[in-house]
Design goal:
By secondary structure, the chain is of the alpha+beta class. The protein contains 6 helices and 7 strands. The protein has helices spanning 19-23, 28-35, 56-59, 87-91, 105-109, 130-139; strands at residues 39-50, 63-73, 76-85, 116-117, 121-126, 145-155, 158-166. Strands 1, 2, 3, 4, 5, 6 and 7 form a 7-stranded antiparallel sheet that branches. A hairpin with a 2-residue loop joins strand 6 (145-155) and strand 7. Keywords: Cytoplasm, Lyase, Pyruvate, Ubiquinone biosynthesis. Removes the pyruvyl group from chorismate, with concomitant aromatization of the ring, to provide 4-hydroxybenzoate (4HB) for the ubiquinone pathway. GO terms for molecular function: lyase activity.
């Protein structure tokens, strides 16, 4: 998978309290549950849309299946997550993607031993990035810059791109 250069930001540039969150290779939801009470998933969008410019290399520019959620502790948003896959992958390797509902996507991904994960990439996004804009629309006022991480899950040749944007309440 090819990512734009800015998705290869050195980890040392991220705030130190975010390092464990950015580098966790296991389930982010499980890590959140270990640190915060009452983690819940609020589905913001599930449907078809065009891939963002920095996602196009992974899945192409065609219509993609998209799921956008907030991971919250009680009523406090902690992570905005944006996951995409192709129509073909919905029929094969990621057929459960469309039926996840308010369950964490990680519960499906990490329960299946045939699904592999790519390396993690991270970057700082600002108000020019569509995911920063979507996170702000979901939670209200945000700092000018947010840190995010991205990885691809593979089920055979099928791909699922997951991007997680870390919101201020997570590390303040």
């Amino acid at each position: 998978m090819s990512l734009p250069q800015y998705w290869r930001t050195p980890l040392c540039l991220a705030p130190r309290p975010l390092h464990p969150w950015l580098t966790e290779r296991g389930s982010l939801t499980a890590m959140l549950m270990a640190h915060f009470p009452e983690i819940s998933v609020k589905v913001l969008f599930q449907g078809w849309q065009k891939a963002h410019l920095d996602e196009a290399d992974c899945l192409g520019k065609a219509q993609i299946a998209c799921r956008e959620v907030l991971l919250k502790s009680q009523h406090t948003p902690l992570v905005y997550a944006h996951s995409i896959t192709s129509a073909a992958a919905l029929r094969k390797g990621f057929h459960l993607f469309g039926r996840t509902g308010s369950r964490p996507l990680g519960a499906l991904l990490f329960a299946d031993p045939t699904i592999c994960r790519s390396h993690l990439s991270w970057c700082c996004i600002d108000q020019r990035h569509p995911l920063w804009q979507k996170a702000q629309a979901a939670v209200g006022t945000l700092p000018q810059k947010l840190w995010a991480r991205r990885s691809v899950f593979y089920a055979g040749s099928d791909k699922l791109l997951v991007t997680e944007v870390f919101l201020p309440a997570l590390f303040t």
